């Protein structure tokens, strides 16, 4: 039996004897002597300084029996070249987890990680299988912990029907994620921690002692701890919802912060989905028979209503954010349209300038080809200026008249479009022009009712049918 865990900060080393350390030595001889010594003597031994600090991933198993914690340690990866040896050790380690699960009221499996480069994913899957965890649970959580940047001490909890996932963020200088499984005799706790090498060298004492005190609360009647934890969780979600609202208002003033608005919308939607999942799990938990969860609690029953109100508030936040994102997209479209109009106007101005200077370039080119005549005096240089002035005035007149001509043409088109069908009647004999050519010419001249000739006065007129009625 291992010696009890010393108090935090104590200098007394302790030793642990493990049955699977002998298994490693019997199977592989002295090849892994350092690993066997490490497994036998554990963390905090006198020989700790002589052991190579190459382990990327370590496990501690702590059993509390009659209020006393006993701890054992296991290294899952001492290097990529030793995966096969470690895999042969795993059955004994798995048996150590299963054999004593029913004999203790709390079992803690603490895993500290300094670097994920040498972690064997097969061990993660085997450990998840031994603890009845979903496949790839540990690997996925280690991957998430390696990317987390949260710095908070709040507790977030999700309650499936039979299990509790408790996430502790930034405990000390480490990031923790714990899995709690209710057993017939107590709790099976798996704590995953991602921390610096300094926190790893301090050992599991700060984590186990701090978490054990928290488990005392969870050892109370089952309906009370979820309510206590979930109320703090709901309050933190309300704070996040208010923060999203403030960000929404700030982004609305900026108008074009689309990336930030889309990010906040994604966060709000994920929070709403998480709350719905937690609410459904809590509703299943409340429906369990009283023999399992104890006497009914009004506080726990009211917690479901708190969830409903919070989800309804998040729905309003999501709706507001969706409308805001659509508003930003519309404003972006209008901005692009205005920019396109400005570019078209710039092109039009450049075209007018080119139209003005093109005749001058022609005059310059004409006299440039007759440079010899200018040199001999047969052609007077004044002709160049005279021609340039005349062409410049002609270009200016044509340039200025373009806009009124466009306005006049647009006015005639609007007049013809607004005229009644009776005004399009054709009188007299068939003209040598085609019908559409004559109508087009009359429209250009602004004629509505041409006066019929005397020879055509007695002719029957062709009345077009009014299809606009």
UniProtKB/TrEMBL annotation:
GO molecular function annotations of the record: cobalt ion binding; cobalt ion transmembrane transporter activity; magnesium ion binding; magnesium ion transmembrane transporter activity
Keywords from the UniProt entry: Membrane, Transmembrane, Transmembrane helix
Keyword Transit peptide attributed: no
Pfam families documented for this protein: CorA
Membrane-crossing residue ranges in chain numbering: 350-369, 381-402
Main location: membrane
Subcellular location: Cell membrane
Membrane-topology annotation of the record: Multi-pass membrane protein
Top-level division of the source organism's lineage: Eukaryota
GO cellular component: plasma membrane
The UniProt record lists the keyword Amino-acid biosynthesis: no
InterPro entries referenced in this protein's UniProt entry, alphabetically: CorA_TM1_TM2, MgTranspt_CorA/ZnTranspt_ZntB
PANTHER family, A to Z: CORA FAMILY METAL ION TRANSPORTER (EUROFUNG)
Name listed for the protein in its UniProt record: Uncharacterized protein
Organism: Carpinus fangiana
